[in-house]
Every structure is written in C-alpha cells, then in structure tokens.
Amino acid sequence: MHENQVEIGQADVERLVREQFPEWAREPIVPLRTSATTCHIFRIGPRLAARFPMQVADPGDLRSSLEAERTALAEFAASSTVPSPTTVAIGQPGSGYPMPWTVQTWIDGDVATPSSAQGSGLLAQDLAELLLQLRAAETRGRRFSGGGRGGDLSVHDEWVEYCLTRSEGMLPVSQVRAAWKTLRATPRTSPDVMAHKDLTPANLLVADGRLAGVLDAGGFGPADPALDLVVGWHVLDRGPRELLRSRLSVDDDEWRRGAAWALQQAVGLVWYYEESNPSMSELGRSTLGRILAAPDLTW
User: What's the predicted TM-score (pTM) here?
Assistant: First the structure.
C-alpha cells in the first residue's frame, strides 16, 4: 500500500515474541487479514494482538510515538463507554524487523463496514453515548496540535485539491470540490474537546447491531468537536445519522464541519487505495456519496 512499506511474516513474529516476551512463547500466533493501513496485526493467543508499523520510521522517534500512544490508549479506555485496547508491552527491533512494535489487549467483536449497520438506530445511540462521554473528558488545558485532522479545515485545501485532481474519472469531482469549498468555510466558535480522531468503520467493533468496542485510539486528544462526527457519514444512513445528531444536540455549523472533516478524509481514500486496499477506497466512495446526497447540507 505504501512505497516505504516494511513486511513481516509469521515466523518473524514468532521469533520476536519468543525472544522478547517468553511468557507468551507458547501462545499460537496468527496473522490477521484486515483492511488496516498503518500496522501489520498478528493475534497472540486469545487475549493479545501484536502490531507492527508498516512504514519505515526512525526507531527512536517511533518508540516515542508508541509511548505516547500507550498513554493515549489508557486515557481513552478510561473515558470510553465500550472496551478498547490498551498497550501491555513495547517490543524492540529484531529478527529482520527494524522498528519497535507493540502488544495490545484483544477486544472481541466484528469489524464494521460502511454498510454492515448503516440502518441501525441502536448503533447510532451507542455512538452518541460514546461521543458524549469522550467530550466530557478533561482536556487538562491541552489544545489541538500537529498537522492532522482536528484543527483548521482550511489547512487541508491543498491536499483536497490534489486528491480531486487524482480522482478525475473516479468521482464527481466538480460536486465534491463545490461541497468542500462551502463546508470548509463553516465558522467555528466552540473550544476543543477530547476526540478519538479516526472513527472509521475499521476502528469500530459491532455485535448484534450494537457498538462492542473501539480500536486505534492512540490519537486520543483535543480537537474540533466536529471531528468525531465523521463516524455518522462513514457508517450511518440518513435516519440513524439524524438520530446521532439529535442525541448530541449538534447545531448546523458543527454538523457541517463534521461533514467537511469526513469529506477531507474520504477524498484521499478513493484514489490512494484503489488498487492496494479496495475496501478503504470503497469507504471513501460511500462516505462521499452520503455527503453529496444529504438533504441537510447545501453548497
């Protein structure tokens, strides 16, 4: 999927676990086939999972990042209404793998898709309860920092335009461009709140139409309160999405910014993953389709 991608096989993982964490050496290790875009994931027995970053990074910098992730995961778990993984160990480079890696707790549930629970009002209610709980968590004086999603929408103008150029023939580019131009200009007056920052289907676990767990909360931190509203556009059809909005008491400006953040994320998925990760590309298409068809958005 990525030009600087690092591969790792089951035998390498078995050797790394055996050498660095002998207490788990007898556990069966199984590679997982997922749509993940950042880590190779291997299950270690029934209660753990090993995560190996895919892209080349400086080992020292990555170690610091994984330590920060450990802290964020623990903070998220303390605020979440459903189970979420926490880091139990950080491994060292070895056996042909050149970077640090992590071992996290395993959470049961089925990974959501853009359509697996799109009509579920119960899922919408669960997501609303999750977001209310996250928003109630203390920022402790922290504010959004960094270049990712969650700050100023206009910072992403160049990226969105680049993606639209790459998407000619794949998307209704003129419509998406018009939607972005209008939605990204929506004003904001509300302060940062604590946010997951990546509530895509691949990071949601469901069971019987209900939210059963949340994955990849290593970015948990302060951000635009509209950012986590992307989940409504990624996984819910109109009725449940309106229920989500109602439960959160979201005003028009915040709702429109949420759609803008979802558009910013989705437009990069379609062309980038078209061949290497079709399910992620399709997520981008379905999210943009929901935005363009929404009667409560105008541009």
Answer: 0.93
